[in-house]
Amino acid sequence: MKWAKSVAKGLLGYRPASLQVGALCLRIRDGKTQVLLITSRDTGRWVIPKGWPMRGRSLSGAAKQEAWEEAGAVGKIDKEPTGAFRYDKILDSGLATPTDVVVFPMRVETLMKSFPEEHQRKRKWFAPKQAAKLVNEEGLQKLLRKL
What we know:
This protein is an alpha+beta fold.
């Protein structure tokens, strides 16, 4: 019994990180890079399109699908990630779980007017440094400042 309590005490609050994929949606306007940010559905904070890996899709393919569903962005996504960041995902239960997001750059060719989450989110293009100031996640800020 004593052993079980000490093990439980040592693991209390420990959870392995979950994995999500994200699309860093980019375009060039007047020779300058722009980043597409969207608002989250729950708090309205600025984020990149992201979600869970999908059965039958590569990680980059799942990120591309999230870009379409959440932002209406269509384009070419790199198969290699540009980086990753960690944040605390708030689950429906209200609990926070550490989540790693692998980020794939995507060159946006078209922004569709109609897309699955168009009534749940706003979207807007920003200069990378401005985008870095708007997102909350420190790791994502660093990725944006590198652009």
